[in-house]
Each structure stands twice: as structure tokens, then as C-alpha cells.
Amino acid sequence: MLTNLKEQPKDKILGLMAQYREDPRATKVDLGVGVYKNAEGITPVMRAVKAAERKLVAEQETKAYTGLAGDPAYSSAMCDLLLADSADRARIAAAATPGGTGAVRQAFELVKQMSPNARVFVSDPTWPNHVSILGYLGIEVVKYRYFDGETRGVNFDGMMEDLAGATADDVILLHGCCHNPTGANLNLTQWQSVIDLILAKGCLPMIDIAYQGFGDGLEEDAAPTRLVASQVPELLIAASCSKNFGIYRERTGLLIAMGADAANTPVVQGNLNHLNRQNFSFPPDHGARVVTTILTDPELKADWMAELEETRLGMLELRQKLADELQRLSGSDRFGFLAQHRGMFSLLGTTPDLVEKMRVDNAIYMVGDSRMNIAGLNENTIPMLAQAIIDAGV
Ligand code: LMR
């Protein structure tokens, strides 16, 4: 029977990770997978995470199962972080999931059950796994224009024109902050226009937020999600703790489903629990418990926020230095967008051929769509990348 299986397409981002590992060149630069790295190229365990883990080792008395939705204290702490007081908690159901991807997957499954004919509108481009999971579940994907190849900002008029095609059966998927892969984001006025469109169409918004704290700050990055939550009747949110807590391999995510009517919340919660049970039963707990420990301890929380802020500012500095170096080499401002983008990524906006050329000639690994992980850079590699970009003729 196993011989009936067909080879699956390789995930572009994970495939690149493997290719990078195999490259023997000492000068290779990894700008691929979305993992934060410090100037030494290390993905550190954050101080508050270490401290919370020590606390757990000392104090945890059992590793018996939690609830199907995970520990309610985790959902509550995460809702505080994401939503503050923007939404009526009585309307909110939430479940812990294996990472942000787990939350995305569970959300799409929920969509399929709620609206079997739903189409999911995704930005063009979006994180490739959005499209892959939707295809796997047999859900129709509609791409909306997002990235302006000229300005490397958001093509907002194109986006709104395309979203106008959504109906009350459909879902509009939005990146809460730090758009992946482009790094180009909506401002709050534009978010308000999207909310008005959603309200007019009666469709369901879904926010994927995986980089809170990596863009303009923890509160600033949550502002669009809170704006949406305070105005729409229904909302799905898929959140990840992988990046902002640096606990990638612990698989720590949360799915939030906000309904219009608090009386229906127990039914929604029951469906989230049921979905978890069918797919993996109980969600992983260690990462969630670490996050809860940090968020509910003022000292640990302050230290986590301080380290996250250092990380964010470090990435902004790298952006600025890269933009400055390119400005120096090209004698033009055409790479200024790199300093305007926010989050871990920037889409350079060049062709797969030139991306491949930089990989072959300069051992620079960026995703084929020209997405660069800015955190993969340091003082030494910025001039190398800038020169490679100029030499390639981008
Ligand atoms: C990325 O976009 O690189 C990350 O979200 C890692 C992944 O799972 O693709």
C-alpha cells in the first residue's frame, strides 16, 4: 500500500534550510527560515524563558493531562497580550494548539465546518503554508493583490478592489502585523477601511499573528487586531508564541474564536475542544506553561519585554544599515523600502532567477520569492549581501 504514495512537493522554506546546511562554503548567509538569530548567528533561549523553565522544574508537581483546550490560564494570559480590553471575553472561545501553524490548521478546519462553500481570501503573496494547508483541506483560495512591485509597499487600492469580491460565506485572512513574506504592512487607517469592507460584506475575518513585538512594539503590533476585535461580530485569530518567546520547537500557539453572541460561546468552545481531540487530543503544554509563567509574573514579564524590545530594535538597526549600504552602493534611494518594512522579513521584489544567482555566486540563501530574514544578517554580512544585490543587478 505504501507504494501508492506519491512524492510530495517540498516546502520551499524548509527545503532551503536543508540546502543551506549542505553548502560547504564558509561565507554562506542564511536569510531563509523565519527564526531569529543574534549577531553570533545563535537563536538564544530568552532569559525569562530559562527562568520560567527553572521555576517549572522546581515547582511543577504533575504532568498529567491538561484540558483539551489546554490550560485556561494560558488562553487568558494570551488574550490579555493580544486583545487587552478590546473584546468582550464572554464572546471568546480559545484553545491551545501545536504552534501557530496548528492554530491556522484548526481555524481552517473550523471554517470548513461552519461554511462548507467558504473561499479563503489570502494576500498575494502570503506564507506559502497558508495556501498549502487550504489546498490540503480542499478549501478554495482566492488571492487578493497585496504587494506593490514598484514601491515594495502595499497595493492598497488593488487589495480593496479584490476584497470587494468576498461574500458572507467567505473568510478574509489578514496578517496581524509584520506581514510574511513582504514586511509591508497596512496603517491603521487602511485597517479601518478593511474592517468597514468586512462589515459591509458580512464575511469572516481571520488574523494570523505570529510576530507580535517584532514590528513597532508589543502594543503597536497588537493594535490592528484589537481594532478589528472591537468592531466585528465574529473573528478568528491564530497566534504563535514561537518567535516572540523564541520557543519554536515547543509548538506553542492559540486559536481564538470570537462570536457575536456570548450565549453561543460554550458551543464554539466545545467545537474547538472537539477539533483538538480529533487531530491530536491534548495540545502540548510545556511552552504554554512557560508563556503563562512569564506573562503572569511581573518581573519575568518585564524581563521578557525588555529582551524582546532589544531584539526588535536590533532588527530595525540591521534594516537601516542594509538600506544605507545599498543607498551608498547604488547611489539611489530605491532600496529605502527595506528600512520601512517591519518584522523579520522583507521581500526584495526580484525574480527567482536572481535569487538563485545570489545563492550560486555568493552563497546567499533567501526564499525563492526573494524573502529575506533580516535577523539572519550581521555587521559582516550586510556589506556582502548589499554587494551581491548590486552585482546581481536587482
Ligand atoms: C517562516 O515563514 O519561515 C516560518 O514561519 C517558519 C515556517 O514554518 O515556515
Order of helices and strands: HEHHEHEHEHEHEHEEHHHHEHEEH
Which consecutive residue ranges, at least 5 long each, have pLDDT under 50?
none
Helix content: 40-55%
CATH top level of the largest domain?
A: Alpha Beta
How many domains?
2
Rg value: 21 Å
Q: Which percent band covers the strand fraction?
A: 5-15%
CATH topology of the largest domain: Aspartate Aminotransferase, domain 2
H/I helix tally: 14
Major sheet details: 7 strands, mixed
**Average pLDDT rating:** 97
CATH architecture of the largest domain: 3-Layer(aba) Sandwich
The class by helix and strand makeup works out as alpha/beta
Pfam family, one: Aminotran_1_2
Family: Belongs to the class-I pyridoxal-phosphate-dependent aminotransferase family.
Protein name: Aromatic amino acid aminotransferase apoenzyme
Cofactor: pyridoxal 5'-phosphate
What key phrases describe this protein's structure?
seven-stranded mixed beta sheet; Aspartate Aminotransferase, domain 1; two-stranded parallel ribbon; 2 domains; 14 helices; alpha/beta; Aspartate Aminotransferase, domain 2
Question: Could you write a compact summary of the structure shown?
Answer:
The chain has 394 residues and is α/β, with parallel strands linked by helices. Helices cover 46% and strands 13% of the residues. It has two domains: 11-45 and 301-389, Aspartate Aminotransferase, domain 1 (Alpha-Beta Complex), CATH 3.90.1150.10; 50-299, Type I PLP-dependent aspartate aminotransferase-like (Major domain) (Aspartate Aminotransferase, domain 2, 3-Layer(aba) Sandwich).
